[in-house]
Amino acid sequence: MKNKNAKAVTIRAKMTIIIALFTAVMLTVIWLLFVVFLDDFYREAKYRELLSSARIIETHITADTSVLSDTIAELCRRTDENVLILRTTGSSTESISYVQPRDILSNSFAVAAIIESTRRDGGESSYTFDGSKNDFEMRGGAENDSMLFAKIIENGESSYVILINVQLTPVDATTTTIMSLLLILSVVFIVTAVIVGYIIAKTLSVPLTKLTATAKHIGTPEYKKLEGNPGCLETAELNETLSMASTELQKVEDLRREIISNVSHDLRTPLTMISGYGEMMRDIPGENNAENIQIIIDEAEHLNRLVNDLLSLSKLESGMDQLELREFNVTESLLALVGRYSTMRAVEGYALDFEYEKEYVITGDELKLIQVFYNLINNAINYTGESKRVLIKQAETTEDNKKYLRFDIIDDGDGILPENLPYIWDRYYKENRAHKRAGVGTGLGLSIVKKIIEQHGGKYGVISEPGKGSDFYIMLSL
């Protein structure tokens, strides 16, 4: 059989590859920005610089000549630009400002051609020029070493022409230098990324590898919690989670074994007695009497109760047994149950008293709540004292600013030791954890009570002292 994980990649290798690829992508972006697109960015920056200067000059175009000259002189000093401003009136053209004249601005033929082209373009254009030629072409040429921005401003009968020219510095030498530096940086960054990625991946993978090894024994006595530095917070939390899961699984396994042992004991005993008494009645003359038949009937009933309780508890714990909520008179239902018990138990000398002030209507699953009362009353009868008296109380109470209807089922038996009180709601719990078959009960009654009351959002508990009997109570919300 082929290993399904044969093609899987370790976290160490995957983390190293991811960091190396990320570094390679970032270096590629840097190469594109500083090498491939450097000239384009440079030309775009120069164009925006010329556009800004033209906007400043435009705001001072109608100012006093000295103010305009000072403004242009400051711009040229700061940006190393060449500026030519012409004013045309009718057929005459005059220069009103001319700063740092050189290149295309000193060529009257080229200037006239630029003005004509700008008019055709709507009054605003930019151009790039090859220093070895006198002609011009639109901005974007690859071999040009200067850029010019032209703008025509109409002002009544006159118009102004703003021409701003700037030299473009060749970027080839700069690009070569940057490429050399980037080549060195690329090698350093990739090597560093691989090393750092390996270290980070190792830091993460080592604790995970140990956790994986220990997780194979989860739920068994061989499982051991990972000690020492967990590597990171998430790994530490995973370690704690696995430890808790192992503990809970071990508890479940122990409980499973205990239940199998207890159920086997409870099933075996009545089956053995039914089989034994049946064979005795068949093989021994005179043993086919009412007393032996009643023993077989009693054991069959006990076996039936045990199976039913097991099925009920299993459904409750799995969530398959949903509540059927409706309003019903709980006092009336409990009164009827007590009446049936009193009739059946009167022959044996048991007395059941039900104390209540008024009847209450609540919302709940009537059949399941009757089962709760049945289990609690049956438990009280099994463990009551020589008086054979069981007292049932119903009263309204308030707890945490919420109203409840409380039911107390009180017996005067031997009571329960304080150290055993937290465990009596567990399945098959007996004092000293020694299981023995009850005379009437199945050992599951209180567990069923617990599940049903929890489903109803109620409360349950017991008050007991050795030698003073026990008070089992439940509280249902009003």
Strand and helix map with partners:
Blueprint: H1 11-36, H2 38-59, H3 65-79, E1 82-89, E2 92-99, H4 108-120, E3 124-129, E4 137-138, E5 146-155, E6 158-167, H5 172-215, H6 233-283, H7 290-318, E7 326-329, H8 330-345, E8 351-355, E9 361-364, H9 366-383, E10 389-399, E11 402-411, H10 445-455, E12 459-464, E13 470-477
Parallel strand pairs: 8-10
Antiparallel strand pairs: 1-2, 1-6, 3-4, 3-5, 5-6, 7-9, 10-11, 11-13, 12-13
Helix pairs in contact: 1-2, 1-5, 2-3, 5-6, 6-7, 7-10, 8-9, 9-10
Question: What does it look like?
Answer:
The chain has 478 residues and is α+β, with helices and mostly antiparallel strands. It folds into 4 domains: 11-36 and 174-215; 63-170, Transcription factor LuxR-like, autoinducer-binding domain (Beta-Lactamase), CATH 3.30.450.80; 233-314, Helix Hairpins, CATH 1.10.287; 323-477, Histidine kinase-like ATPase, C-terminal domain (Heat Shock Protein 90), CATH 3.30.565.10. Helices cover 51% and strands 19% of the residues. The protein is built from 10 helices and 13 strands. The chain has helices at residues 11-36, 38-59, 65-79, 108-120, 172-215, 233-283, 290-318, 330-345, 366-383, 445-455, and strands at 82-89, 92-99, 124-129, 137-138, 146-155, 158-167, 326-329, 351-355, 361-364, 389-399, 402-411, 459-464, 470-477. A 6-stranded antiparallel beta sheet has the order 2-1-6-5-3-4, with helices on both faces. The chain is elongated and about 150 Å long. The model is unreliable at 132-144 and 431-440 (pLDDT under 50).
